[in-house]
Amino acid sequence: MPAPRHLYIVTGASRGLGLAMASQLLQRGHHLLCVSRHTQPDLDTAARHTGAVLEQWSADLADASGTAERLRAWLYDVSRGPFASATLINNAGSIPALVPLRDSAPSDLAHALRVGLEAPMQLCAAFLGATRDWQVPRKVLNVSSGLGRRAMASQAGYCAAKAGMDHFTRCMALDEARLPQGAKVCSLAPGVIDTDMQTQLRHAQAAQFPDQDRFARLHTDGQLSSPHDAARQVLTYLARPDYGAQPVADVRD
Known about the structure:
Layout: E1 5-11, H1 16-27, E2 31-36, H2 41-50, E3 53-58, H3 65-78, E4 83-90, H4 106-130, E5 138-143, H5 156-177, E6 184-189, H6 196-202, H7 212-220, H8 227-238, E7 248-250
Parallel strand pairs: 1-2, 1-4, 2-3, 4-5, 5-6, 6-7
């Protein structure tokens, strides 16, 4: 009889940190559901090579209610499977224009908050509700940012989304602690990673974004983690026996 698989659901898995985490999970032979704007052929290739089970959904998380309902129904269906654990990783995010709030477009702000805050809340609700009676360990990892804990000029939308993510994770932790087999949850800052977001930050207009030079120097001085290394750190943190003891944490702690 084959060993039971671990189930992972990862959003924003088509590039950057999300793609690196998904690739590493597939290398370990886990059962993986990826939710991104676009599917990633490299993940299909990795799954074929490792024998892991992979399903990819193409979804716009700026309008996540339908995806959350689909996830809830999917989890009710797959709950018959022999999973050893179930984990939701909310990684998808969106950085709005690098301008002061007074110059921000309402649609740009709405998109950042929907992808970065509303979608994770809806997906957490679907995941926790559908798996409430599962007799296996369950975890939620919300990929947050130091900018949820430290303000930055010209990034009100992104900072607000990450601060909201931190705080609703604290609320989830209180909710789950009241259950006999509640999920372990954490909003985790993954460090400074060389992703598309960092490219946007260091190439922004300095007149609009006062921290532009600092981010350019992080890249020049080699202080950015690669997506591969950051993914390894995040997944190592997720596997810690004390995972969830702190509902808001930093991978560097």
